[in-house]
Write a structure and sequence with these properties.
The protein is of the alpha+beta class and 155 residues long. The chain has five helices and seven strands; from the N terminus they run E-H-H-E-E-E-H-E-H-E-E-H. The protein has helices at 12-22, 29-37, 82-96, 111-119, 149-153; strands at 2-6, 42-49, 52-62, 65-73, 101-107, 123-132, 137-145.
Length: 155
């Protein structure tokens, strides 16, 4: 069984293991502690499979938008739908908080992630040159807008 739960300080040891298995330049313990305990904009979730942390994802609520900061699923838990569950949770939270949309950056070569985001209505809106420090790879900026976006479009 897969559960999506709010991230707590007690989850950080296992989140760090996922982080290190997924990224060449992983976030530090201090980064996650700051997100969970100090950053009032931060919304972080963990995915637990049979009680074990299999992934995590984070989003910041900035003014009236969501900015997905990271999505990571440990290699041995991929293809179980965890990424989809995170996207569904973020969309639900964004709509509950009346955000106008959600944005994210994704490596231009990460077709698997782009396919997931497209499935949930995200569309490419631009690029960030040399965005990823580990590879100097470009990022695709993707957005998903909600119905209330039109209210702000003409302001």
């Amino acid at each position: 069984m897969i559960e999506i739960l709010p991230m707590t300080m007690e989850d950080i040891d296992d989140v760090l293991k996922v982080e290190e298995s997924c990224f060449h330049i992983p976030w530090t313990r201090a980064d996650f502690e700051r997100e969970v305990s100090e950053n009032k904009m931060a919304i972080y979730f963990v995915a637990k499979v049979d009680g074990k942390i299999a992934g995590y994802a984070g989003m910041w609520h900035v003014v009236n938008e969501g900015q997905i900061t990271n999505v990571a699923v440990a290699p041995e838990y991929r293809q179980l739908g965890i990424g989809s569950l995170f996207m569904e949770e973020f969309i639900k939270v964004a709509q509950e908080r009346e955000m106008i949309g959600i944005t994210l950056e994704v490596k231009i070569s990460n077709y698997t992630a782009q396919k997931l985001y497209t499935k949930y209505g995200f569309k490419p809106e631009g690029f960030r040159k040399n965005y990823y420090k580990d590879t100097n790879e470009d990022a695709v900026i993707m957005w998903k807008y909600f119905e209330n976006y039109e209210e702000y479009e003409n302001v």
